[in-house]
Design a protein that fits this description.
GO biological process, one term: regulation of mitochondrial mRNA stability
Keywords: Membrane, Transmembrane, Transmembrane helix
Largest sheet: 4 strands, mixed
Helix content: 40-55%
Shape: elongated
Distance between the termini: 131 Å
Protein name: RAP domain-containing protein
Strand order of the largest sheet: 3-4-5-6
Number of strands: 8
Structural class: alpha+beta
GO molecular function: RNA binding
Strand content: 5-15%
InterPro entries: RAP
Length: 690
């Protein structure tokens, strides 16, 4: 064959081994005429009167290019042969790869034992495979996606697979669509959803009510990647469909559904559905995994945030599942202990068992978990030797160097933990010295501003002020006066008044109404007024005097000064009392305790008791002997007996006292006695003057 090579541009169509490839490049052919070259290119099957394989112009071309034996007059620099040329020549004239070769090699490489995924061979396979994705079948694409779960650092191929799947998705049926999106989900390469997952969520948003049970589960798990429900997704439709297929789903599937709702920051509004989910958990909790139980408990807590609107079955969770505490890990136990916290319900047995488990596994517990358990203990009214041991163990745990990195990584959690210990009247010097050290305060303020943890400054102020009231002997680091003043100013608001009722929240309106009631009894010119007695509390209290003197808010009583009778009415809002108990919770209990320590006579007025009573009951007064209640038919015999015993007790032993719920204040030295009665059984509040 003539070795003179001529350079001609055209598009070659090579038919060989029953497949066609088109190559757009400047090729080199023999110096034969164009018709002769065409006859060489289109060699019919079964005929032998054509050039043999060894004289094939493409073989000659490859050899000439490799050996650089090209005619001097027609030489072209090697640099002009770009990467597509090299790739195509390799495929056409090298080993004659079929479209399955790279795919098969990739699968074989993945399935080999001791595969080095960082090797050059693996990188070349992935690179070559990326260029032929469009030639693969749908099942082969999904197989490759599945294999990527064991290959580290596969983001480039993942994105190309995602792009290819999006192109094909318009022709896919629902089964292939869900299969591909679900396989992508198993990769867990990123918290951000891929384009295919976005497409499936948006395109099937209006078909939720026609989905099968398993399709609904997969759809919600894919939706979880968004971290919120898109506007096109109707949550009511999802809840309705879930109600219909609930009995067809396993407890594990329900755990995935609950996790999707929780991660998207959504609650289930359908209380009947919440109740049915709770019932399924109560039945299957002993036989399912910890992750499923934890996911369901999280959603139950979020779906029960309103104490007046919740599924009644939620209150059965702790009593019925507390016997499984030894079987579960600490993350699940935290969810169990706090599942009813928004409903103001704390189960003593559950708290005790969870606390004991944490005492055993204290080293394994995360700071965040310890903070949450501290919150449950501080807010509840439960106390036991295990609780005391827990607070002591916390001080020892965080005094060591092992926890220092975690403390500085999550300063808001550590400050909250220390604050809950103070609320529970446990002052651990180890915790206090860390929380109030100057460098940690600076770090905490910076962290709070960066991540919008506004409660951090309020908790620091609460810790510092509580130390001054209840632990004046403490000599460790304290909050600087500048920071203390700045934090107080940040959270302090003007005293509530009735000039503009629309600006009052429910608690402020309660305090104003309570103040007006006290003035109606003591007289309009009485010294009763709203006063901020403690800088770390954002709600004022009503103070008044029984001896006619005006109360000075800066006046601090002492236990030796029994001639001065100063009283404070503390308004207990609706979320300050535990359910099924007449005891004040956490912050309210601390407030009463600290006011009592300051020398004030404290009377707590529950919000619901006050507003459930009529005005006549609030202003009820009696002029006869204190132990004669027959004139008032609305007093029960039990109430009369209680008041009589209280009068006798405080008459025999005059002293300062505080009411934790409804104990009346009686002063033997005052010109009259005020009995403020808030009855649990009668749900009425009475203010009686003798």
């Amino acid at each position: 064959m003539d070795k003179v090579i001529r350079r001609i541009p055209h598009v070659l169509s090579l038919t060989n081994q029953n497949f066609t490839r088109r190559i757009e490049w400047r090729s080199w052919l023999s110096s034969k005429s164009i018709p002769a070259n065409k006859s060489l290119l289109f060699k019919p099957d079964g005929k032998d009167n054509y050039i043999s394989d060894k004289d094939d112009p493409f073989t000659l071309l490859l050899n000439n290019l490799t050996q650089k034996k090209i005619h001097a007059n027609n030489r072209v620099p090697t640099a002009s042969l770009d990467e597509p040329l090299k790739s195509c020549t390799t495929q056409l004239m090298g080993k004659q790869f079929s479209r399955h070769d790279f795919y098969n090699q990739f699968i074989e490489f993945i399935e080999k034992q001791d595969t080095d995924f960082k090797s050059e061979e693996c990188n070349n396979l992935i690179e070559n495979l990326s260029t032929t994705l469009h030639l693969l079948s749908d099942e082969q694409l999904i197989k490759i996606i599945d294999c990527l779960s064991i290959i580290p650092g596969n983001s480039s191929l993942t994105l190309k697979l995602d792009e290819e799947c999006c192109k094909r998705s318009t022709k896919w049926d629902k089964n292939i669509y869900f299969k591909a999106a679900w396989t992508f989900l198993q990769l867990k390469t990123s918290n951000r959803p891929l384009h295919l997952q976005k497409k499936i969520v948006l395109e099937f948003a209006q078909e939720v009510q026609q989905m099968t049970p398993q399709e609904l589960v997969k759809y919600l798990v894919i939706l979880k990647q968004f971290r919120k429900f898109p506007k096109t997704v109707n949550k009511i439709h999802i809840e309705n469909r879930l109600s219909k297929v609930l009995d067809s789903l396993s407890i594990e599937d329900l755990g995935l559904v609950c996790s999707a709702f929780f991660e998207c920051n959504e609650a289930i509004k359908n209380l009947e559905l919440v109740g049915r989910l709770v019932e399924r958990l109560l039945i299957g909790a002993s036989s399912t995994d910890d992750k499923t139980v934890g996911s369901m408990l999280k959603l139950f807590r979020r779906s029960s945030s309103d104490p007046g609107h919740y599924a009644k079955q939620v209150l059965d969770i702790q009593p019925m599942l507390c016997n499984l505490v030894p079987n579960w890990n600490l993350k699940v136990l935290i969810q169990l202990a706090a599942v009813c916290s928004s409903l103001l319900f704390y189960h003593p047995v559950t708290i005790e068992l969870v606390t004991q488990k944490f005492l055993i596994c204290m080293k394994e517990a995360r700071l965040k978990d310890l903070e949450r358990l501290s919150m449950v203990i501080a807010m509840s009214t439960y106390h036991s030797p295990s609780i005391d041991l827990f607070w002591e163990a916390l001080g020892k745990e965080f005094a060591g160097k092992e926890r220092q990195n975690e403390i500085y990584q999550y300063p808001h959690s550590f400050i909250s933990l220390t604050n809950y210990a103070v609320v529970a009247n446990h002052y651990s010097e180890q915790l206090l010295r860390i929380a109030l050290s100057p460098d940690f305060v600076i770090h905490s303020k910076s962290y709070a501003e960066k991540f919008s943890y506004q409660s951090t400054k309020r908790e620091l102020l609460n810790i510092d002020c509580s130390l001054g009231i209840e632990r004046p002997e403490y000599c460790g680091p304290r909050l600087s006066p500048i920071d203390a003043k700045a934090f107080e100013k940040l959270y302090r608001k003007p005293l509530p008044n009735m000039d503009d009722p629309s600006l009052l929240n429910s608690h402020d309106a309660f305090l104003v109404s309570l103040l007006n009631t006290v003035k109606d009894i003591l007289g309009e010119n009485s010294p009763a007024s709203l006063v901020y007695l403690q800088p770390h509390f954002t709600t004022p209290d009503i103070v008044f005097s029984l001896d006619g003197y005006k109360v000075n808010k800066s006046f601090t009583l002492s236990k030796d000064n029994c001639g001065v009778q100063r009283c404070v009415l503390v308004g207990g809002s609706r979320n300050m009392f535990s359910r099924f108990s007449d005891q004040p919770m956490g912050p309210l209990r601390m407030k009463v305790r600290q006011l009592q320590c300051m020398g004030w006579n404290v009377i707590v007025i529950p919000w619901n008791e006050f507003f459930n009573a009529s005005k006549r009951d609030r202003l009820a007064h009696h002029t006869d002997a204190p132990n004669d209640f027959s004139a008032h038919s609305y007093y029960t015999e039990a109430t009369a007996e209680y008041i009589t015993e209280t009068v006798e007790y405080y008459t025999e032993a005059p002293k300062f006292f505080s009411t934790t719920y409804c104990s009346p204040f009686l002063s033997p030295t005052a010109s009259f006695i005020i009995v403020l009665m808030l009855m649990c059984d009668l749900l009425m509040a009475r203010l009686i003057i003798w």
